[in-house]
């Protein structure tokens, strides 16, 4: 018997004690601004050194490193799409969530906290990104119902929190 969970809340991802946090990285995996910058700042040079050995990451894919001094045991680095308005954006963003969850399962991890991938510098509209994050996470839990996974979607920006709330409100209204 196990209980999987899907929730969202306003929290700084670098403070979360869990099996893994998901960083919204870029294709170099060598750090940047936003949540990526915050994670690298909180951790320091050892993370950067391990990231160098990974030789980058394609959009929609995910790679894992240790969490070093962060409270999370591991960091999954995924690369969201730079929003362009084309159908490939949704496919790539969906793959970020799916591949991160798949990697966490492969590593036998059971608690995962996501940043709101692509909703900052990469310009993905909040409502559309919320739909992808919530639908993909919920579908993954259904498809992997034999595995316990607790998913937390972090919202650092109030507009992200509002989009998650609104999507769920409309969702329950339709059912
Ligand atoms: N904890 C949780 N969420 C955060 C934090 C934090 N400490 N800081 C920011 N966010 P962004 P992207 C939220 O720009 O759009 C970097 O330079 C933020 O409010 O970090 O995928 C990379 O190196 C927003 O909702 O990532 C790439 O070059 C969300 O995290 C590029 O930015 C994502 O915003 C990736 O852009």
From TrEMBL:
Q: What class of enzyme is it?
A: hydrolase
Residues covered by the Macro domain:
1-172
Please give the CDD domains that the UniProt record associates with this protein: Macro_OAADPr_deacetylase
Give the keywords, sorted: Hydrolase
Q: Which InterPro entries match?
A: Macro_dom, Macro_dom-like
Return the EC number.
3.1.1.106
Please indicate which superkingdom the organism of origin belongs to.
Bacteria
Q: Which SUPFAM superfamilies match?
A: Macro domain-like
**Record-linked Pfam families:** Macro
Q: Return one GO MF term.
A: O-acetyl-ADP-ribose deacetylase activity
Q: What is this protein called?
A: O-acetyl-ADP-ribose deacetylase
Q: Native species of this protein? A: Companilactobacillus baiquanensis
């Amino acid at each position: 018997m196990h209980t999987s969970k899907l929730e969202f809340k306003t929290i700084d991802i670098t403070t979360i004690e869990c099996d893994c946090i998901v960083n919204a990285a870029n294709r170099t995996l060598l750090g940047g601004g936003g949540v990526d910058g915050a994670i690298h700042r909180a951790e320091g040079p050892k993370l950067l050194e391990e990231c160098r050995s990974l030789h980058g990451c394609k959009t929609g894919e995910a790679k894992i490193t240790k969490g070093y001094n962060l409270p999370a045991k591991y960091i999954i680095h995924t690369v969201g799409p730079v929003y362009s308005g084309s159908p490939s954006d949704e496919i790539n963003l969906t793959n970020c969530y799916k591949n991160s969850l798949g990697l966490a399962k492969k590593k036998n991890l059971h608690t995962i906290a996501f940043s709101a991938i692509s909703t900052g510098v990469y310009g993905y509209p909040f409502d559309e990104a919320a739909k992808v994050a919530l639908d993909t996470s919920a579908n993954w839990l259904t498809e992997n119902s034999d595995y316990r996974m607790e998913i937390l979607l972090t919202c650092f920006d109030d507009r992200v929190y509002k989009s998650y709330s609104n999507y769920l409100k409309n969702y329950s209204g339709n059912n």
